[in-house]
Amino acid sequence: MTVQITKGVAAVPIAATPSPSAKSRRSVFIRRPFFTASLLIAAAYVLAAIFAPYVAPFDPVKQDFNVMMKAPSVVHWLGTDSYGQDILSRVIYGARYALIIGIFSVMIGAVGGLIIGLAAGLSGGWAEWGLMRLIDAILALPSLILAVAFIAILGQGVDKVVIAVGLSMIGPFARTVRSDVMQVRVQLFIEAAQLMSISYLRVVLRHVLPNVIFPLAVQVTIRVSEAILVSSSLSFLGIGVTPPTPDWGLMIAEGRDFVSFAPWMSAMPGFALALLLIALSIVGDGVREEFDPKLRRDS
Amino acid sequence: MIAQTLSETKAPLSEQSIFELIEVEQVFEVPKPGRSLFSRETVGLRALDGVRLNIRKGTSLAVVGESGSGKSTLLRVLLGLDKPTGGRALYHSKPILEGRASGIDFARDVAMVYQDARGSLDPRMTIGALIAEPLRHFNIVPPQDEAARVSQLLDRVGLPADAADRYPSGLSGGQVRRVAIARALASEPSVLVADEAVSGLDVSTQAQLLILLQSLQRDMGLTLIFITHDLGVASFLCAEIAIMYLGRIVETGPTDAVLGAPSHPYSAALRAAAPQFFEPLSEPLSGEIPSPLNLPAGCRFSTRCPKMQDDCRLKDPQLGKLGPQRAVACLHPLEQQ
Questions:
Q1: Helix (H) or strand (E) holding A284
Q2: Alpha-carbon torsion B237, B240, B244, B250, what sign?
Q3: What is the pLDDT of residues B210-254, one digit of tens each?
Q4: pLDDT at A11 over 70
């Protein structure tokens, strides 16, 4: 440790705290085994979704009336449904729809929530009051009910489900963004920027937005699972994705009538859904705990 | 020991005023205490009440006072963050707010070091980006020289160049203050305003920062306005001192003279309350600073003044000249030895 003298001022070497970046990034997978396992499971779903045509043993919508409602076997690992369609293939293709709907609808919710939350948090006064009462009114309804209402307006189909679920998620996002904005707005570094006569727009873009985006990104990872659940619920209720699309909610609903003698029809997609949701929420929690600015030491 | 080095290090005083406050008042309307739920009654909180202050170019001024004496309000007026409700606050003979509104020159010329240095730095930006922000904003250096200037500034405040890649959360309290100072210096200001810039630090860190500030003031010819409640810090760093009590400056003058022989009983009491080596503490002032919602009649210090006389309850003394360099707001200033 060398101390150099510069113009009579002793240089203070920054040494005491070692740079944690590389070290902790390596060890997070060891420190959090559940997080790691969940991340691997989620990654497996993503890969299965992307490479579904190569991974799936059968065409997911090819009906074969010779093998209707067959129990899991060597040929059909997860059995077949009432149309003789291979459940494993349908589950694999179903991951596509689940992830596409989950990710894109959360994006809609996050972007919409960011815009409304920023507007409310920055404007203050009557505009904020009006926006937040609107959000309160929306939040009074559970997101599933809200999504049902949007579906009623938009109609059915994958794209409509994405929009409906996305719109239904704007409320919670707007609320968290607004509270983050209000917290950041009164910080001293904002006043310091204003003291430098930095324009309002620049202050918002350079200082408010980055401090709001990060907690929002954490929210996004956590809420993907909620979006998947809501979209599956819509399909289960028969108002989301239309048959014969291999959607998990739809598959669970189709197997419902045969649950006493062909339980695998509902159980297999249900299990696939539950596993993904659990994995995603553990990943989301891990991301939050690892990168929460309050728990974070550096970078 | 400190007093000895002091007189050699102070910058020469020139006569050009940089800040001028004339009878500045800052009254905040606050809800009347004990008002009913539906009433809108307010009452005036006199945070600043007839402040007279003249800050000459190149000087170093300590503003000293208890909490609640209006130091921070005065600071906000000086920085042009708040508009005073009365009086005139001038910067180079023009209203401060006008100067602030008319462009970035004022912002560039008057830089600020906050007491909460960590809070004044965006936690999501690296030290390098934080220091580069004013460089870019005020067009101090061409973009290609930015990195070099950042390390130059870090070096100037005694931080290694690799600090530029770190985040404020990874630095100690003293290091963060150095960053805040480097950031303030980046705009090449002529006035540096520091609010309690060394409080809450280890004594050794405090001493390092004081020496740094002193050398900066001397080498760069900065006008330094230093808010503090530590008389020792004030006497080490500042050529001039202004002592505030309840929103008014009650005594100003050269630090040595004022602290050596205070004229205002409050200055004397403040000095006596500062702990000294090998000396027992004298009896502290009784009571607390009165509420600015309800100022005492006559002299604002009369409720606690050990030398109170009858007319002190009747007349409110203004800051008046006492000799060539000093001024005091007292009807019966203490005798000068």
A1: helix A264-291
A2: positive
A3: 998 898 888 888 999 999 888 888 999 999 999 999 888 999 999
A4: no
Spans of chain B below 50 pLDDT: 1-14
Q: Which residues of A touch B159 (CB under 8 A)?
A: 11-12, 14
Residues 6+ apart with CB under 8 A from A294: none
Residue-wise pLDDT for A195-234, tens only, equals 888 888 999 998 999 889 888 888 888 889 889 999 899 8
Is-contact B114 A192, C-beta < 8 A?
Answer: yes
Q: Which residue segments constitute the domains of chain B, with CATH numbers given?
A: 2-6+13-31+42-274+296-328 (3.40.50.300)
Q: Which residues of B265-304 are buried (b: 16+ CB within 10 A; e: fewer)?
A: bbbbbbbeeeeeeeeeeeeebeeebbebeebbebbbbbbb
Contact present, B263 and B334 (Cβ < 8 Å): yes
Per the CB < 8 A criterion, the answer to whether A239 and A151 are in contact is yes
Q: What is the pLDDT at residue A257?
A: 86
Asked if B158's CB is within 8 angstroms of A6's CB, the reply is yes
Checking if the pLDDT of A55 tops 50, the result is yes
Residue of B121, B124, B155 lying closest to A6 (CB–CB)? B155
Which residues on B lie below 8 Å from A197 (Cβ)? 100, 103-104, 106-107, 137
Shortest distance, CA B121 to any CA of chain A (angstroms):
5
- From CA A181, how far away is CA A38, in angstroms rounded? 32
Positive or negative, the Cα torsion across B201, B203, B208, B210?
A: positive
Paired residues of B17 in beta bridges = B56
Q: A220, exposed or middle or buried, with CB in 10 Å at 0-12, 13-18, 19+?
A: buried
Query: What is the three-class DSSP state of B189?
Result: coil
pTM of the model: 0.78
Give the CA angle between residues A66, A67, A68 to the nearest 5°.
105
Sign of CA dihedral A96, A101, A102, A107: positive
Q: Which tokens sit at A200?
A: 């309002």
Starting at the edge strand that comes first in sequence, how are the strands of the sheet with B94-95 ordered?
B42-56, B17-31, B86-91, B94-95
How many C-alpha atoms does B172 have within 13 Å on its Cβ side? 15
Q: Which residues neighbour A97 within 8 Å (Cβ) at sequence distance 6 or greater? A: A158, A231, A241, A245, A246, A247, A248
* Spatial CA neighbour of B267 closest among B283, B279, B255: B255
In terms of phi and psi (left: phi > 0; alpha: psi -120 to 50; beta: otherwise), the region of B143 is alpha
For each of the domains in chain A, give its residue range(s) and CATH number, in order of start.
30-50+90-291 (1.10.3720.10)
Query: Closest by alpha carbon to B63, among B219, B300, B227?
Result: B227
Provide residues of A within 8 Å CB-CB of chain B.
Answer: 6-14, 16-17, 19, 187-189, 191-198, 206-207, 210-211, 214, 293, 296-299
Phi and psi torsions of B185, nearest 5°: -75, -20
Q: Give the containing element (helix H, strand E) for B54.
A: strand B42-56
Q: What is the per-residue DSSP string for B89-122?
A: EEETTEEHHHHHHT-SHHHHHEEEE-SSTTTTS-
Q: What angle do CA B192, B193, B197 make, to 5 degrees?
A: 110
